[in-house]
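Consider the tokenized backbone below.
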């Protein structure tokens, strides 16, 4: 009987130990979550380290450069034209003033056709507006005479 009591007490002790180990594991997990959240949230009002400040400044600079690409587009186009002109001059093509590769030529063609369509649409709109203004002026003159 003593042996049965000992084994029951031992089983109860193991069950209690397993329960305590499970609670310890759960509390460690909760503690890790709290520490991680504290690390993220706790730095909100803190000053940045010099390395973080340098990285932030560099990222801000890159963002501002990417946000304003038209500043560099004109200069890049000028450089591209100069390189192409120099390349065509080095090849010794005396009868051609310049040479465009087919891809660039197609891009220019598409751009000019798009620009031409836009100008045609703009002229059409201006003509319609001018006709509408003529009708309005005629109606106003009729009202003034009446």
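A designed sequence for it:
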């Amino acid at each position: 009987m003593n042996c049965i009591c000992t084994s029951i007490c031992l089983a109860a002790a193991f069950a209690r130990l397993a329960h305590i180990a499970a609670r310890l594991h759960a509390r460690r997990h909760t503690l890790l979550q709290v520490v991680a959240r504290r690390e993220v949230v706790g730095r909100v009002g803190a000053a940045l380290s010099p390395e973080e400040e340098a990285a932030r400044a560099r990222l801000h600079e890159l963002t501002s450069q990417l946000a304003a690409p038209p500043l560099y587009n004109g200069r890049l186009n000028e450089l591209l034209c100069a390189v192409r002109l120099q390349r065509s001059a080095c090849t010794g093509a005396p009868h051609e003033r310049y040479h465009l590769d087919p891809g660039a030529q197609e891009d220019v063609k598409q751009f000019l056709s798009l620009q031409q369509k836009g100008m045609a649409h703009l002229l059409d709109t201006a003509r319609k507006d001018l006709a509408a203004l003529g009708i309005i002026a005629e109606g106003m003159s009729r009202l003034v005479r009446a």
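The longest helix spans residues 102-145.
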